[in-house]
């Protein structure tokens, strides 16, 4: 993400130029896009405060009135902190009739303990409800139990216990591939209560017990939302940035793009680990993320995503 550090733009005249500038055919979307996608979240908030002080208007409302479609979704997402954005996406995934399980799984199963703790705090602040209760109220069965365990997990010990590694690897095997049916409770317990370094070693050790690796075992043992959840967890434990790179590739592997997935990952990871995601994308898919976005999007939406991407590898 190409971030500009200069804060001299925070005068009313400059803010007015960027956000109230009218051109013959309407709003100058390109300028709005370039300014907001090339700043950090904190800088965008400074711009919003300056705008509101001088114009006596809420900048978010002004942006909603000026923009539309996919571009509006990106820009409004960028006006939230990463935790606020994730919390809002979770709320949207369980709001109304039906549940967007894919979005819910991506966020809850891919975030670190620290990120989930902040998301829960912000969720309570924004919606006056507990995230755990809302998620459980909209899901069921082992899928709900797994999400609840992840949402409630405490920071595990970072101490590597090699005896425990072997015990966990054997337990995962005996709870799944070795028996008829799957002891999902055991899988949930291990994957929600252990540290990432510990689980990485567990999955490596698991191969000495099972003829299949952990991901293959999951595909054989469980289906549906539970399968997707466990796979997301294991993929993120093994290489979180590769998981997001693969999600981006899947969102753009056919003509056009799955804009919802593309937007969510680009907005939520742009100030977290997008540079590493770009590196994994190029290494595993033979083309840069920048080039792939350019091929599958267009217009101001494309411009916004390319600005967030920050460069062609």
| Class from secondary-structure proportions | mainly alpha
Major sheet: order of its strands? 1-2
| Average of per-residue pLDDT values | 91
Q: Biggest sheet: strands, sense, closure? A: 2 strands, antiparallel
Question: Can you tell me about this structure?
Answer:
With 313 residues, this protein is an all-alpha fold. Helices cover 70% and strands 1% of the residues. It has 19 helices and 2 strands. A two-stranded antiparallel ribbon has the order 1-2. The model is unreliable at 1-12 and 22-26 (pLDDT under 50).
Keywords:
single chain, 313 residues, mainly alpha, two-stranded antiparallel sheet, disordered N terminus
Topology:
Blueprint: H1 12-19, E1 22-23, E2 26-27, H2 29-37, H3 41-55, H4 59-66, H5 69-78, H6 82-94, H7 101-110, H8 113-127, H9 131-138, H10 141-152, H11 162-174, H12 184-193, H13 196-206, H14 214-221, H15 224-251, H16 259-269, H17 274-285, H18 289-296, H19 299-309
Antiparallel strand pairs: 1-2
Helix pairs in contact: 2-19, 5-16, 5-19, 6-7, 6-8, 6-9, 6-16, 7-15, 9-10, 10-12, 11-13, 14-15, 15-16, 15-17, 18-19
Question: Gist?
Answer:
The protein has 313 residues and is mainly α. It is built from 19 helices and 2 strands.
